[in-house]
Design goal:
The chain is an alpha/beta fold. The protein has 2 domains: about 25-190, Rossmann fold; about 190-320, no CATH class. Helices cover about 50% and strands about 10% of the residues. It is built from 14 helices and 7 strands. The two termini are about 20 Å apart. The relative contact order is 0.14.
Length: about 325
């Protein structure tokens, strides 16, 4: 709804990773350089860690979008708490060679046949594992064993492991010494600076045709950084809600006051008030009565605004229904 109001060609702050919105901050550019270097090495493991929403998946998706599909075959696994055998099954499913009745040895042969056949045909196989911090030591060891595949002394399979910061602690386990020796590139992606946050917001808006509507003040960008600490996904969440607010309130100029109000509403929705909603009585550390009242008021404003947005969407759908002029 707000995209049409502000004459944008699309949603600039969608949460789904999209390579077309890639912004080359200093950290993201260095991460891309490490990935590109590791890919050109043609073997071993490439590790990218970072906080939730830092942009790890977007970087890898951008790298894959630039690959020559005639020379690469890639599959992505989003890991949960996978055991060793489950990891092999997921890899086999990803490469399209899984069969339920086959035992572990058969799965290994199928995966090896797939990657070696592709390699002889001039194609390298890439395995991307997201949320790698959830993998067990056994699952990581199975991935290391897959890296043993060889064709004429060259590895036909290369793996990318993306994880949250705690994954670095997992990799430090003494049992993973052999895996660590096969890491060809590793990078930790941190948050953006305040100037980068402003440039990131402007970049995403310009990607969908923004022409200074809404007009964003300098205080707007400072407030967004203060509330998000420069983490891309947090920025997207906050800015999307701010633009929805602007649409509902018919605002064509947005400053820090609106950002602060929307951020407070998000905090009321996702913070202690929501977290403690299952308790029969407020917890002892809920805060002062004025603080609690302020949070409740922010939550009420947010609910009201959502209701207005839903009513507006219903009106639009009704106007487009068959038989309407």
């Amino acid at each position: 709804m707000y995209a049409e109001f502000y004459q944008l060609s699309g949603l600039p702050f969608q949460l789904t990773p999209d390579p077309k919105f890639f912004f080359g901050s200093a950290g993201h550019t260095r991460a891309m350089a490490h990935l590109t270097y590791g890919l050109h090495q043609g073997e071993g493991f490439i590790i990218v860690t970072g906080d939730v929403g830092a942009g790890k998946t977007t970087i890898v998706d951008l790298l894959l979008s630039r690959l020559d599909k005639s020379s690469h075959v890639a599959t992505k696994i989003v890991s949960t708490q996978l055991a060793a055998d489950d990891m092999l099954r997921m890899v086999a499913v990803g490469f399209g060679v899984y069969e339920e009745s086959i035992e572990k040895a058969g799965l290994l042969r199928r995966i090896e046949h797939f990657v070696t056949t592709n390699f002889r045909a001039g194609k390298r196989s890439l395995l991307i594992v997201d949320e790698a911090q959830n993998l067990s030591i056994g699952a990581l060891e199975e991935l290391r064993m897959l890296s043993n595949f060889s064709v004429g002394g060259t590895a036909p399979l290369q793996s990318f492991l993306l994880g949250q910061p705690q994954f670095r602690g997992v990799l430090a386990n003494p049992a993973l010494e052999q895996l660590r020796q096969r890491i060809t590139a590793s990078y930790h992606l941190g948050p953006m600076t305040e100037p980068e946050t402003q440039a990131y917001i402007q970049h995403r808006l310009k990607t969908v045709g923004w022409k200074d509507d809404p007009l964003l003040s300098d205080s707007f960008f400072a407030a967004v950084f203060n509330h998000t600490a420069g983490v891309p996904r947090r920025i997207n969440t906050l800015c999307s809600r701010v633009l929805l607010f602007g649409y509902l309130e018919q605002q064509h100029a947005i400053g820090h006051e609106i950002v602060d109000q929307v951020a407070e509403e998000l905090k009321a929705e996702l913070g202690r008030v929501v977290d403690e909603s299952s308790a029969p009585f407020p917890a002892a550390d809920t805060g002062s009565l004025p603080d609690l009242c302020a949070r409740v008021a922010a939550l009420e404003r947010s609910v009201s605004r959502h209701a207005r947005a839903i009513r507006r969407a219903i009106e639009i759908v009704a106007a487009l229904a068959p038989g309407k002029s």
